[in-house]
């Protein structure tokens, strides 16, 4: 072994002990009077090395030539420091070095390997192997390990078995584009990388495995954002002989376990709200409930006053920002510009200030009396000092715009504390959603989601009104996990395919193996999948899942470190029977 201790464990209890350490040079501090101090770093921490010209002139001279990130092995004696650093666990001791081996030298790194680095995102991603040496990045991966480990422990204790499912599968429609892989042995044919192990975990239930889980890579070729990567990791789970309540209780238990074991936090029971409630009061199926500011509909209070904008709108909704009446005109204009951005698409924003003296001032004063505005304020439960913000338009669009405004104001008022966690279940999703352009229905989750039993008759007469036995776990406005009770009999599954516009031949071609399996006694089953990356990023307080993945892609789906994806050599294309034609 190159070391008998790590750089993060020595304390005053080890004084006078001879130790051997190995690690990277974090910093060299040359003092007057023939003293040089070197911070030696490894995964576990930092230990100060002391080199004195009076004690060992040769080692002292060598220490003055160390560069950042040199790899050293040192042997020496633990000594109490005269100038202690109580910010680190080893800050009360140092090593008086008596033997030194330079295991490797290093070029000057392209950015500082410090908690607060001078490297931008692109540079850090290009040299990700150096970025991973930084303590905050390393801690994110240690947190990820801990969450995965505790997940396995919890599920193993409850009779779940981890089963690996294939990575090379057939292409199936699951809501996003597939990544495809050409088959050399089967010219002109392609595998797809799985968007999820959905079909296989259902087959495992048919196989009698009863309780399955897998911490598994999934792949989706979709536009990227902060909480998306082309390859991501799910905690994928399925159970037999259970109903929706069983699944919610099991995985609420897992989430509480992770919060307790990993963060030392006791989480209360999760509220359950319907999809309809979430949309009505938050404009989102993943509401952030760390703060109030729920939507209030005031359409009935605004009509008949000759304000054509409200009169012609299907929906008029308000939020009440507590204590925000002090917002300046400049701040209100900035909020108006925010909601008018193309990504949000509102046409404007109406405000009502409830002043401390009880008066009400609005951007629509010339249409509405003080008495009118007072009724709005009462409906919104506003008090002096509060600010009411109003958006109108088509119901669904206006609610989504009001949702974005609510989150922005919540941020501005400091209401979205990353150290506070609000967990909930959203249930009773619509089973289907209609594409108006194509004039047909698509599964909101996937084609195997079971409708509510009482809604099955509506599949033929009113498909859009059918509710699903589907559920999402939401934490702080992030959809962390989701799943459903599955269809487990062939007749209902065939009816679902029919509603979705599948011909019998197409359904058989894409899902024949599952439908055939259902003929042999499929048990009732249900499951869900957690996004491990999202869960870790929430626990770590990160803004992007990229920071808790060892080797992530950038926003263009590129790995800039290894420069992938890349062009293939013609010889390789020929072997795969492929010809590349890039459309103009």
From TrEMBL:
It is found in: Cytoplasm. L-aspartate binds at residues 174, 220, 445, 486. Residues 198-201 are annotated as: Aspartate. ATP binds at residues 220-222, 229, 479, 531-534. Its EC number is 6.1.1.12. Gene3D superfamilies: Bira Bifunctional Protein, Domain 2 (3.30.930.10), GAD-like domain (3.30.1360.30), Nucleic acid-binding proteins (2.40.50.140). Homodimer. Catalyzes the attachment of L-aspartate to tRNA(Asp) in a two-step reaction: L-aspartate is first activated by ATP to form Asp-AMP and then transferred to the acceptor end of tRNA(Asp). Belongs to the class-II aminoacyl-tRNA synthetase family. Type 1 subfamily. This is Aspartate--tRNA ligase. It comes from Dysgonomonas termitidis.
